[in-house]
Amino acid sequence: MFRLKREFISLTAFAAFLIVLPLLMPNAYFLDVATKTIINAIVCVGLNLLLGYAGQISLGHAAFFALGGYATAVLGSRLSVPAPLAMLAGAVLVGVISYVIGRALLHLRGHYLAMATLGFGAIVSIILNRELAITGGPDGMPVGPFQIAGYSLPSALGGYVLAAVGLFIAVKLATSLINTRAGRALRAINDSEIAAATLGIEVAAFKVKVFVISAIFASIAGSIFAHADRFITPVEANFLRSVEFVAMVVIGGLGSVVGAIVGAIIFTLLPQMFAHFEEFRHVLTGALLICIMAFMPSGVVPTLASLWVRWTEPAAREKGSVHGAA
Amino acid sequence: MSDLLQFLFSGLTRGSIYGLVGIGFALIYRSSHVINFAQGEFVMIGGMVTVFLLAAGVPLPVAALGAILAAALIGVVAQVAIISRMRRPSTLSIIIVTVGISMFLRGAAEALLGRQFFSMKGFSGDDALVLLGAKVSPQSIWIFVSLVVTTAAISLFFRRTILGKGIQATSSNRLAAHLVGIDVPAVLAICFALSAALGALAGLLTTPITLTQYDVGITLGMKGFCAAILGGLANPFGAILGGLILGFAEALAGGYVSSAYQDAVAFILIIAMLLVRPNGLFSAPTVDRV
Amino acid sequence: MALLDVTNVSLAFGGVKALSEISFAVNEGEIFSIIGPNGAGKTSLFNVVGGVYIPDQGEVHFAGDNLRDLSPAKRAARGIQRTFQNLQTLQSMTVLENVMVGMHLRQSSGFISALLGLPRIHEENEFAVRASMEFLKTLNLEHLSRQQAGTLPYGAQKRLEIARALAAQPKLLLLDEPAAGLNPQETIEMAEVIRRIAKQGTTVLLVEHDMRLVMDVSDRVFVLNFGRALACGTAKQVSSNPEVIEAYLGVETPEENSRAAVN
After folding, report:
1. Who contacts B250 (Cβ-Cβ below 8 Å, separation ≥6)?
2. Residue A165 within a domain
3. A 260-299 residues with CB < 8 A to B
């Protein structure tokens, strides 16, 4: 019961933060950065389930993101399908694709999923670039605002609200998964596949399910992005985008919802902070990536959390061992 | 017929480049189980340094050697100063670090050299030779010969030198290699130097044909990675064959199927191969020990 | 009919024969031990029963069914659980959560209800917590329930693996060297635990180096040497078998014990 209460309080606080945030933004530019950060965070919360819990690497999540975005753009804006339905269609499409890929490959060990998703992502990116008639090619295509029954919020704020609602739901889903039979099974797989299997957990089937869930998170985020940016280009399907998503999760800290969000914040804000040194933006981002991983290999949030524990409870470790011996 | 021959020559040229880049991936993966995402940037460095040394009036052989040494040096620095110093490295954190290194190198090239293309003359001029009715650029011959020589050199290196055997020992069991007195960190550094040098070689060879730019490493790196996967990732010679297969497949698909989807061939091949033979085309399946 | 029936099983790694034509049957409710010097093939045999290795030849039947094509997870669903010689506790999870994972097969909620936070999830969790605490009590671990499994001392982790396996309510429990690394007092307690498990109706298949424990708890003992069956019978019969004494008991030296302790 105590845990439930605490979860309720932190979710409420999080919702309050999301509501207040746009009021603190001095101008439209900052609001836009906040929206982009939140959209990245949605992808990361989903990807973290795959990376942090199932221990599988995907180098193709940008493709799922882009497919969601293009589903919204093509169905919603060009074929006038209602926006929520277009978003749903994108999610279903991505769900089916990721299921087929996962089903075929996730029983294998090693980095097979990484390689296959890399290949898949590259193919999606090429198709989006080449099929001018449908996607508008490298120039991309415009997207309408998110409308329900003909009503929509004003442009910039509308994007933010959509993203914030998306992230809140994503966080709610991810946190409620952790302490359930399925969530425990996932964490067990990450700790020891062999132990998980001998306890009756169908390891490959679980990995496939998480892969599908994380891909759908990315697809929804992509749809939100298309509405928020009012435009989408094949750059969103780029291999480097996929790598960025993985980097965000790892930087923030694997296996923690907070970590996924913090990673998205760090990675999205950094290039903005370096905007004054436009030419050196990528060098600085690269250098920072190296430094964080060199000094905090388990990610920012877990590292800070353990430092915090060490400062506040210097006796924690000893206490543990006394308990153990008893 | 002459069309086909033309495509085959083009495939051989592409394939040789992919193979050279692929060996780099395979060498590093074999020695340290790291997928080095900065491999493509060494290709870029090879082309760029050669172009600038040539512009400074340095003769081509010296410029080429300079480019290869520069890349190798950067490779060693990356391994010794960054990767080997990581505390409690996981596969993922190492991947992220190599991504960081690649962003850093690419970003540095962008900041220093801008986004324009740089060109360079073919080693033996740019006048195409006619061979059996098909046109072949002399640079293609340079590329193919370099691949053959490199393959032979690496094969000799692995079989005949203490260092080569040390690398093999390290890749099969790092702890055991350490216990029998092999300097494992040195071996790893040498592997990084070697694969950086091979990447740079590929880069300076291909620049006269494809030009170079700060971000050529992304595409070439991915193609080289495909070559390595096709060949079985841990097998340097598999990477060469993988590269050649990929080169021919691309050339044929571009010629007979669709030039718009030529770039997709590599990735379709990867997925097809993962479904059929996940350990690569040329690797024996490994026994899983628990 | 026997609960577990191993017939004519052979297994080779490359050219090395790990097991040659092994046959034995374990009856329901019995404590059946497999002993033998290092490298005799005990753990290989365990892995064949658990489904980690597929034998090159021979069959394993459990409650009348051929296990051949069943994965470890499917075997677990039939009622086979095991512990590991080199610990496989779930390090990043708490002691309580480890045992709750052990209850995986006895519950059924999936991703959808978990993501949606349906009420049945809370009921399931509460039941799992209550039941798991009982298993922790059985193995004297309840005071450690909130600790991370990875921080527990070795002996406690061994007991945790047993608690976790019991949480699945197995018909057959495979224990891989449960006394290795335990001090004499802990070993005596372990013997008590094993007897209690059998008394509650779970059949126990035991691989163990500590001969006192084996002789103390086993209904029957099966002796392996270089992958071959050497003898099978009650503890008394086996320990008086001259071949066994020569092949096995004769080399049971203090050095042997210290190796087990290091493991």
Report:
1. B11, B14, B262, B263, B265, B266
2. yes
3. 279-290, 293-294, 297-298
C48 and C96 in a single domain? The answer is: no
Q: How many domains does chain A have?
A: 1
Determine the structural domain holding residue B99 and report its residue range. 2-276
Quick one: C61 and C99 in the same domain?
Answer: no
With contact defined as beta carbons under 8 Å apart, do C11 and C55 qualify? yes
pLDDT tens digits, C214-256? 989 999 999 888 888 888 888 888 888 888 877 765 554 444 4
Asked if B97's CB is within 8 angstroms of A293's CB, the reply is: yes
Identify the DSSP state of A180: S
Least confident span in A274-278, A293-297, B194-198, B220-224: A274-278
Element (H, E) at C12: strand C4-13
Please determine, for the modelled complex, whether the ipTM score is greater than 0.90: no
Let me know if residue A296 belongs to a domain: no
Residues 56-115 of A with CB under 8 A from B: 57, 104-105, 108-109, 111-112, 114-115
Instruction: Tell me whether residue B286 is in a domain.
Output: no
By the CB < 8 Å criterion, does B284 face chain C? no
In a shared domain, residues C124 and C226: no
- What average pLDDT does this structure show over A49-65? 90
User: B285 in a domain, yes or no?
Assistant: no
In this structure, the answer to whether residues C53 and C118 fall within a common structural domain is no
Is the pLDDT reported for residue C205 higher than 70?
Answer: yes
pLDDT score at C255: 44
Minimal CA separation from A286 to chain B, in Å: 4
The average pLDDT across B8-15 equals 93
Neighbours of chain B (3+ CB pairs under 8 A): A, C
Give the range of the structural domain holding residue C123, as residue numbers without chain letter: 89-168
- For A269, the token pair is 């804000």
Query: According to the model, what pLDDT value does residue A315 have?
Result: 52
> Which residues are CB-neighbours of A129 under 8 A, at least 6 positions away?
A135, A137, A138, A234
**Pick among A50, A106, A283 to test the B interface (most B CBs inside 10 A):** A283
Query: Does the distance separating the beta carbons of A192 and C88 come in below 8 Å?
Result: yes
- Which of C138, C168, C198 finishes a domain? C168
In a domain, A274, yes or no: no
In chain C, the number of structural domains is: 2
Between CA A102 and CA C263 the distance in angstroms is 37
Average pLDDT, chain C: 87
The whole domain housing A201 covers 14-239
Chain-chain contact of C73 with A180 (C-beta, under 8 angstroms): no
In a domain, C84, yes or no: no
Residues C202 and C235 in one domain: yes
Q: With beta carbons under 8 A apart, name residues in chain A contacting C97.
A: 184, 187
Distance from CA of C241 to the nearest CA of B (A): 33
Cα dist from A29 to A22, A26, A157, A223, whole Å? 11, 8, 11, 21
Q: How many CA atoms lie within 13 A of B25 on its CB side?
A: 32
For B287, the closest chain C residue by CA position comes to C13
User: Residue A290: which of B101, B263, B288 has the nearest Cβ?
Assistant: B101
Q: What confidence tens digit (pLDDT) does each residue in C84-135 have?
A: 988 899 998 999 999 999 999 999 888 888 888 888 888 999 999 999 999 9
Instruction: Say yes or no to pLDDT of A129 above 90.
Output: yes
The answer to whether residues C177 and C86 touch, using CB atoms and an 8 Å cutoff, is no
Triad B147, B153, B158: Cα angle to 5°: 125
Number of structural domains chain B divides into = 1
Percent of chain A with pLDDT over 70: 94
A254/B106 touch (CB, cutoff 8 Å), yes or no: no
- Cα dihedral A107, A109, A110, A113, rounded to 10, equals 0
The answer to whether B5 and B132 are in contact (CB under 8 A) is yes
Same domain as C211, residue C231: yes
Q: Are residues C72 and C187 in the same domain?
A: yes
Question: Which chain C positions have a beta carbon within 8 Å of A187's beta carbon?
Answer: 90, 92-93, 97
User: What pLDDT score was predicted for residue B1?
Assistant: 59
Q: What is the CATH number of the domain that holds C13?
A: 3.40.50.300
Q: Please name the member of C90, C153, C165 whose beta carbon is closest to the beta carbon of A325.
A: C153
Q: What is the CATH number of the domain that holds B230?
A: 1.10.3470
- Whether chain C has a CB inside 8 Å of the CB on B287: the answer is yes
A103, part of any domain? yes
Q: Between chains, do A122 and B101 touch, taking CB under 8 Å as contact?
A: no
Please provide the average confidence, as pLDDT, over all residues in chain A: 87
